[in-house]
Design the sequence.
């Protein structure tokens, strides 16, 4: 299948590569000429701009926008709307606020252009292991794009009988539903990460000078992280990346512990507040990130290590 990919950062480039590996024809564009050249070397069709992407695609076209939420995505979709024809589809795979999807879908519908929002999880590891895709949009449009979603998912191209969920991708509902589900997914992620981080803080300080000498335990946190990966009920991909970071340096001295947060954690809590849904753990996890930018501890370094391990994220700059 043919598709355009706009935005060749950490996620966009790897999405394009996975599609190429699964024999799809990918037309790519990015503001960075070097990024476009690199993907061309991997088998993509390079495009000089948005108009060139559209020109190289055969109707009904599908263009995947993988850019930061906000102005970059907003302006790109606006420009694409003027270039595309009725029956074409714009896929927003970034971390857009779901209510923005509702507005854009209405605007695109007036032009006859379809909108699909795809919550995309997998980080830098997804290039090889596949991505979890949470998809919002019209049923028929999503069905037509199924080969793209199947290729990106851990299940590959072959679809299992019944729901595609077991293969790592799912049409979760109408426009906005994909990013709504991904928003909650990331809110949960904050809570899970905070639980791991605080647990490792307790382990790391078991031999601290503040502990009575008779009660001190010289624990090897890197080896404990590794043993938990095998047979433990708390094993997970988050624990995998934590164990990798600790195996490289159990003190995590290269991390400042100033933990950034992206929009989804805040949006999850804002949505819960609007609907009077108590989310104590998720709220505390977000506030812990705010606190990390003022008063760093070992748990914050563990959080930073996890974020770098699964998403390639850097650390926050200065205070919140």
Sequence:
């Amino acid at each position: 299948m043919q598709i355009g990919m706009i935005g060749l950062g950490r996620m966009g480039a790897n999405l394009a590569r996975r599609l190429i590996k699964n024999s799809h024809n990918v037309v790519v564009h990015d503001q960075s000429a070097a990024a476009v050249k690199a993907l061309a070397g991997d088998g993509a069709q390079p495009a000089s701009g948005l108009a060139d992407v559209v020109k190289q695609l055969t109707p009904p076209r599908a263009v995947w926008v993988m850019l930061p939420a906000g102005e970059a995505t907003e302006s790109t979709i606006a420009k694409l709307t003027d270039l595309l024809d009725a029956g074409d589809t714009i896929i927003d795979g970034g971390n857009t606020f779901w209510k923005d999807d509702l507005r854009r879908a209405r605007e695109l519908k007036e032009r006859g252009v379809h909108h699909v929002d795809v919550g995309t999880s997998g980080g830098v590891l997804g290039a090889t292991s596949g991505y979890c895709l949470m998809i919002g949009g019209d049923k028929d449009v999503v069905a037509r794009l199924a080969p793209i979603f199947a290729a990106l998912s851990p299940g590959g191209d072959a679809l299992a009988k019944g729901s595609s969920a077991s293969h790592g991708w799912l049409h979760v509902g109408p426009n906005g539903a994909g990013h709504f589900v991904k928003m909650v997914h990331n809110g949960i992620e904050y809570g899970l990460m905070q639980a791991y981080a605080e647990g490792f803080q307790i382990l790391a300080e078991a031999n601290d000078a503040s502990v009575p000498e008779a009660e001190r335990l010289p624990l090897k946190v890197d080896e404990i992280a590794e043993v938990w990966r095998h047979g433990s009920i708390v094993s997970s991909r988050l624990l995998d990346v934590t164990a990798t970071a600790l195996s490289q340096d159990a003190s995590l001295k290269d991390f400042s512990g100033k933990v950034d947060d992206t929009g989804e954690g805040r949006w999850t809590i804002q949505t819960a507040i609007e609907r009077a849904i108590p989310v104590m753990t998720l709220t505390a996890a977000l506030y812990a990130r705010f606190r990390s930018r003022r008063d760093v501890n070992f748990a914050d370094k563990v959080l930073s290590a996890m974020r770098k391990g699964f998403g390639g994220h850097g650390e926050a700059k200065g205070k919140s």
Notes: The mean pLDDT is 95. The first helix runs from residue 10 to 21. Residues 53 and 298 are 46 Å apart (CA to CA). The longest strand covers residues 114-121.
